[in-house]
Specification:
It is a single chain. The chain folds into two domains: about 70 residues, 3-Layer(aba) Sandwich (Rossmann fold), CATH 3.40.50.720; about 210 residues, 3-Layer(aba) Sandwich (Rossmann fold), CATH 3.40.50.720. It has nine helices and nine strands. The protein has a five-stranded parallel β-sheet with strand order 6-5-7-8-9. Helix 4 crosses helix 6 and helix 7 crosses helix 8. The chain starts with 8 loop residues before the first strand and ends in a 6-residue tail after the last strand. The mean pLDDT is about 95.
């Protein structure tokens, strides 16, 4: 900050509570812009070069002009607005994604109770409606990672401090918590105590374990006295929360002595799994669900 001059614009990319940019401008006396990023882990470069939209929160024309130069290479719509609107656009966007994921997971629960119903088919039919769209309409074990959990929590807390109850968002968070217990319930019904969990990262193509639903499931299985083994192609050393000997070096080592396999992260290699003698709970819907040994979440099964 020592070399920052009055001509510089401090652009805030992080997700921050509405009012942050204005307070920072007052505190520092610098030009400030709210320019939240909308990148996804694993595709940050692509998302930066080809964004769906660019949001610029500003107060002075000089702030807006400089950010326009920064983003001159994009063809996406540019939203010019107040600091607070820009900050809230980011929070509301992430909150909506969490709600959308939790909604389809609740529909998955319903599909399991209706003969012939399959949440993947339902989601496909919904997603073709342009008002809904197919993105983030995939039922599974629930959402995790570095963004959605902390952003939903922060937005709920911020809204509460203003006397506003975000009931839909709070319900989405609770639904996400219940995904772990839902899979645990399926396992208990099978009356098998030896479980192999495939996948620890919160999603495929990353080694990020932050708020991983898979890791939470493993912890619950251990609490319930299941014999657990886990494997993830991106995780080479066991996180401190796992007991010694639980993490395996290969799929083969992981599944060898288990009675049930749980697919908890949607790695592509798991979709090619061929173990007809093992029961499989597909918590990420990556395997053909009609196979006799597969119990796919969100699909009715006799």
């Amino acid at each position: 900050m020592a070399k920052v001059t009055r001509e510089c614009v401090l652009a805030i990319k992080s997700t921050v509570i509405p009012g942050t940019a204005r307070r920072l401008k007052k505190l520092t006396g610098l030009k400030v812009a709210s320019n939240p990023e909308f990148t996804r882990e694993g595709s940050a470069v692509k998302d930066t070069l080809f964004p769906d939209r660019v949001v610029i929160g500003y107060e002075e024309k000089a702030e807006l002009d400089l950010l326009h130069k920064v983003w001159s290479f994009v063809r996406a719509p540019i939203i010019q607005t107040t600091y607070e609107n820009a900050e809230l656009i980011k929070y509301a966007s992430n909150a909506f994604l969490a709600v959308k994921l939790s909604f389809i997971n609740e529909i998955a629960n319903l599909c399991e109770k209706i003969p012939t119903a399959d949440v993947d088919v339902v989601a496909r039919g919904m997603g073709l409606d342009k008002r809904i769209g197919s993105e983030y309409l995939k039922a599974g074990l629930g959402w995790g990672g570095s963004c959605l959990p902390k952003d939903t929590s922060a937005l709920l807390s911020f809204a509460s401090s203003l006397g506003v109850e975000l009931k839909v968002l709070r319900a989405a968070v609770e639904t996400n918590r219940e995904r772990i217990e839902h899979v645990l319930c399926l396992l208990k019904k099978l009356q098998k105590k030896s479980v192999c969990v495939l996948g620890l990262a919160f999603k495929q193509n990353t080694d990020d374990l932050r708020e991983s639903q898979s890791l939470k499931l493993v912890a619950r299985l251990i609490e319930e006295d299941f014999k657990v083994r886990v494997y993830d192609p991106a995780i080479k050393s066991a996180p401190s929360v796992l007991p010694a000997g639980v993490l395996c070096a290969s799929i083969k080592d992981c599944v060898e002595e288990c009675e049930v396999i749980v697919i908890a992260t949607e790695w592509e290699e798991f979709s090619k799994l061929e173990l007809p003698e093992k029961l499989v709970i597909d918590a990420r819907r990556v395997i053909e669900p009609t196979r006799h040994n597969v119990r796919a979440i969100g699909r009715w099964q006799e």
